[in-house]
Structures are given as C-alpha cells and as structure tokens.
C-alpha cells in the first residue's frame, strides 16, 4: 500500500523539477547563447587581433639592438602628439612595441612602433585588455556592459541559474529504467531525437558549464564582491601589506591598469613617497623592472599625476608568472612586487580559474576544449528551444503541468534555499518565480475544488 503514495510523491517531485528546469531554461536561454557565442570568440582574442592587425603587431626582426624605450616613446609622440600613458615593450623579436597616448581630446590611442628603427607602423583606438575595437565589442557583449549595471546583474543571475540547470538536468537525465537517451542518442528523428541530443550534450559537458559559470562569477558585482570581501577578511585573498606600507590613492588598481590580477583590482593604487621632483628616466625604470625577472609581454603604466607611480604588470598564459610591480615615480625605488605566490589561497585559486576560463593556461588545448564547451552550450540552447517549440500547444507557453500533489522532500527545499543564499540574485529571481507558482497553484486548486466556479 505504501508503494503507490511513494510513486505519486516521486512523480510530483519529477514534475516539479522538470517544470523549474523548463522555466529557468527559457529565462536563461538568451543569456546562455550570448555567453557561449561571445565567450567562444573571445577565447581566440589574441589570434583574431594578430590576424586583423598584423601590419601593426608584427615586424621583421633584424640583427641589431632595439631602440631604447625612451626613443620608442618619443617616436610615437612625434607621430601622435599627446601624453604617454603606457609603454608596452616588444613581447618577442618579431613583435612591435606599443605606446598608449592620450590626446588633447582625452581619447587614448595605441601607437605601434618598429623597435629596430623607430618607424611608426600605425595607430588604433585603445581597447584596453581586449587589444582591438573588435574584441572590445565582443568583451562588452559577453558581460552585457552595454546595458550598464543591470546587464552585469542579469549575467550573474544567469550564471547561477546555469549551475542549477545542470543539477536539475542531471536529475531529469537519470534513466530510472526508461528507454531514453543516456550516453548516446537513441532516437532517430522528431522531438525524441532533440530530447536525446539535449540530454547527451548536457551530460557530457555538465562539468565544463559549471566550471565556466563559477570561474566567471568573480567578475560579477554581487557574488564577486562578496567573494572578494570574504577572501580578504579571511586573509586568503590580497595580503594587507599591499597598500598599508605607503600612501595610497582612491583609484583602484583595476581602473589604473588595463589588466591586473582579479584579486587586486579593488585595492587602491599606492602613491610615490613624494609628489615633487624629477621623474625617474623611463629607460632606468624598464631596466629595473626587467632585472627583477618579469616575463615578456608586460605593460609599464606611466604616472599621470605628480603623486603617481610607475607600474609594470603582466598577465601571461602561464599564470604562475603573473606579476605587478609598483615603483616610485622619482627615485625609481620598488615599492611593491607581487606575484601569484604572494596571494592567499582563494586569490590563487581565483586567478588560476580565471586564466583557464579565458583559455590561457594550457594554450591551444585549453582554447579548443572550452570552444567545444561553448558550442555545446549553443546546442543545448537550440535543442531546448526546439523541444519547447515542438511540444507547446497553440497559443500557450507549453510549460510542464504543475503537480497538484506537492509532497516534495524537505531536503529539496533546503537545497533550493541554500542555492538562493549562495547565489543571491538566483535567490531573488527564485522568490519571484515561487510567488508566481504559488498563485498559479492556488488558482488551479480553486478551480478543482467542488462547488467553485
């Protein structure tokens, strides 16, 4: 006698999870497509920039010493008058040097210079870490920054829901003795084929989707901000000594530098020990920085204010070589030199996760694996949309029927609450969905109650 109630409860649980998976999937679908397409493109940012701007980024190496940094900067300013902001030495013998210059109109351009003869190869609007205007657009679309603060929060909520979609999808995928697609597509055509494609694609890429969602969340406002604060308060993020030894400004590192370790982005830039005097020579500063073993590909930010500092920073493919070095503007003294090993445990994990997320850590293999994961996310979105379109009634949304018997284990409720706490914006949207679900549930029960219209 007990078997029938248990079966009814299991059926109600399955329908509830199916319904939530369906509703969340429809809400997240457009964001998943945006993240997958733009993320897949951005994985190959450097290759795309090299192809689009080859005449600016490459030179013919010659058997001669390169010009001094000051000569390269002077050549750039002669061609494009303005204030030098950043000097980027050639990352390899066949690469150009670059100088970022702010013009009188406030616009910053990147001037590429042949480091052997000082020839100015051309200029391009400075796109920061993206490297080109094209990749800048891709990067902004990926984070929905074109929508402002709301876009960042929408992407954060979508990333959290993607984790829950994977969890609920695995529950729905579990065979339970049914003849459905498990590890391979069994159906030949029609909606069952799309269902199998959706299930099989999801089970093979579940780990990668969760990984991409979780390693992308540090950039978010709410979840990322809390993670940053917790890491710092526990001594597992950025060490105290970063800014406490010297005067500091109100400008965060993330705003001052094109690219910096994520865990440092919110820390204030230090000040020089004085705000007057003769600035250190650029050539001497470069010599100091390179003598400390910073790897090629670094950028040297030039102080823009009397109290500012020189800052050399590099975020290479091998994250263990990540480095930020601050130097006094006048004496050239090293004020702070931080590498990955100087960060706390959570800081190091976050930096490693972000590096893998961006396809850097293991070179081409890293890029290909994540590109396939992005393609799988597109397939999941398309197959989910097709399944919905094929099953929906005419003129209706076609959501799975709400179970009227809601004998759902308390454990599931606790999991939902925990997920809402861990992902605050997911919790907020979850409350909205629950409110709608309760209204629909009570309305349905009212209609089924005898004697009511």
Description:
With 453 residues, this protein is of the alpha+beta class. It has 15 helices and ten strands. The protein has helices spanning 3-42, 45-52, 54-57, 69-79, 133-143, 149-173, 190-216, 222-233, 241-244, 253-256, 282-291, 345-357, 363-391, 410-422, 424-448, and strands at residues 83-88, 97-102, 108-113, 120-125, 248-252, 268-270, 299-301, 309-314, 323-328, 334-339. The protein has an eight-stranded antiparallel β-sheet with strand order 4-3-2-1-7-8-9-10. It has a two-stranded antiparallel sheet with strand order 5-6. It is elongated, with a radius of gyration of 27 Å. The chain starts with a helix and ends in a 5-residue tail after the last helix.
What are the main properties of this structure?
453 residues, alpha+beta, 8-stranded antiparallel sheet, 15 helices, 10 strands
What structural category characterises the helix and strand content?
Answer: alpha+beta
Uncertain stretches: none
For the biggest sheet, the summary is: 8 strands, antiparallel
Secondary-structure element string: HHHHEEEEHHHHHEHEHEEEEHHHH
Summed up, the helix count is 15
Instruction: Tell me the strand percentage band.
Output: 5-15%
Average pLDDT metric: 87
User: In whole angstroms, how far apart are the ends?
Assistant: 34 Å
- Tell me, briefly, the overall form: elongated
Number of strands: 10
Radius of gyration: 27 Å
Strand order in space, largest sheet: 4-3-2-1-7-8-9-10
**Helical proportion?**
40-55%
């Amino acid at each position: 006698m007990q078997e029938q109630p248990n079966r009814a409860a299991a059926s109600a649980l399955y329908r509830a999870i199916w319904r939530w998976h369906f509703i969340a999937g429809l809400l997240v679908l457009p964001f998943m497509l945006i993240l997958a397409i733009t993320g897949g493109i951005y994985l190959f940012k450097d290759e795309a920039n090299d192809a689009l701007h080859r005449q600016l980024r490459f030179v013919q190496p010659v058997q001669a010493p390169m010009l001094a940094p000051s000569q390269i900067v002077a050549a750039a300013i002669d061609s494009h008058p303005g204030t030098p902001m950043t000097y980027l030495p050639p990352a390899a013998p066949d690469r150009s040097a670059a100088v970022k210059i702010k013009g009188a109109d406030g616009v910053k351009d990147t001037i590429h210079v042949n480091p052997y003869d000082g020839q100015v190869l051309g200029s391009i609007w400075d796109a920061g870490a993206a490297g080109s205007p094209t990749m800048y657009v891709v990067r902004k679309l990926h984070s929905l920054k074109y929508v402002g603060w709301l876009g960042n929060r929408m992407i954060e909520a979508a990333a959290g829901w993607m984790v829950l979609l994977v969890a609920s999808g695995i529950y729905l995928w579990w065979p339970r003795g049914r003849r459905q697609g498990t590890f391979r597509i069994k159906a030949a055509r029609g909606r069952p084929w799309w269902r199998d494609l959706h299930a099989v694609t999801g089970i093979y890429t579940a780990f990668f989707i969760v990984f991409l969602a979780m390693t992308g969340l540090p950039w978010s406002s709410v979840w990322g901000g809390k993670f940053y604060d917790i890491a710092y308060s526990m001594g597992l993020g950025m060490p105290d000594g970063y800014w406490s030894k010297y005067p500091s400004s109100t400008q965060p590192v993330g705003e001052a530098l094109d690219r910096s370790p994520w865990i440092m982005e919110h820390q204030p830039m230090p000040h020089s020990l004085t705000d007057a005097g003769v600035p250190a020579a650029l050539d001497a500063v470069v010599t100091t920085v390179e003598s400390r073993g910073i790897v090629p590909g670094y950028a040297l930010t030039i102080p823009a204010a009397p109290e500012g500092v020189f800052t050399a920073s590099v975020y290479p493919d091998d994250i263990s070589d990540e480095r930020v070095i601050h130097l006094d503007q006048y004496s050239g003294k090293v004020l702070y030199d931080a590498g990955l090993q100087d960060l706390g445990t959570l800081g190091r994990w976050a930096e490693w996760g972000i590096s893998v997320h961006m396809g850097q850590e293991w070179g081409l293999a890293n890029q290909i694996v994540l590109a396939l994961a992005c393609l799988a996310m597109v397939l999941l979105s398309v197959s989910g949309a097709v399944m919905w379109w094929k099953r929906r009634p005419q003129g209706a949304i076609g959501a799975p029927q709400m179970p009227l018997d809601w004998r759902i284990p308390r454990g599931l409720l606790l999991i939902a609450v925990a997920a809402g706490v861990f992902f605050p914006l997911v919790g907020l949207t979850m409350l909205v969905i629950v409110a709608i679900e309760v209204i629909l549930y009570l309305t349905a029960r009212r209609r089924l109650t005898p004697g009511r219209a």
